[in-house]
């Protein structure tokens, strides 16, 4: 039940990140076309890209990537360890991630609430409210924290399938 809920939330957040990528692609393309074809670029393109789209693209998919074991890992020694030791190591590293990302979540949530209370916005060609995007970081990091906690518990319980799930290793050629 917990795994299913976390996977659904991670999938939804991943889709939000993809929608952010698509919106950024569309917005920038229209801006460039408008600038070169008609001499009329879209206002606030840079601000929307840096304060809305990029934040969504980076932070919303974090949990979905973790479920796929898609974050960058370096397995110089751990690939030669016994499965039980590898699970323990992954569990400990996941707990370290829980500590780090829970602190990051709490701190960025505090900042987001503060920016909400003051109604943060940017002055540009058009005033743009940006306080809303301050919540993207703690939401994405918060879900990642829950996924890492669940993963740590599963590793300590001996769940082997999580190690292999979606794990694609890349071999570097020695040229």
TrEMBL record:
Complexes and interactors: The complex comprises the extracytoplasmic solute receptor protein and the two transmembrane proteins.
Keyword list, A-Z: Cell inner membrane, Cell membrane, Membrane, Transmembrane, Transmembrane helix, Transport
GO cellular component, one term: plasma membrane
Residue ranges crossing the lipid bilayer per the database entry: 12-30, 50-67, 88-110, 130-150
Cellular compartments annotated: Cell inner membrane
The keyword Metal-binding is annotated on this UniProt entry: no
Main localization of the protein described in the UniProt heading: membrane
Domain Tripartite ATP-independent periplasmic transporters DctQ component intervals: 24-155
Record has Acyltransferase as a keyword: no
Family: Belongs to the TRAP transporter small permease family.
Protein name in the entry: TRAP transporter small permease protein
InterPro entries in the record: DctQ, TRAP_DctQ
Its job: Part of the tripartite ATP-independent periplasmic (TRAP) transport system.
Gene Ontology BP annotations: C4-dicarboxylate transport
Membrane topology qualifier: Multi-pass membrane protein
Single GO MF annotation: transmembrane transporter activity
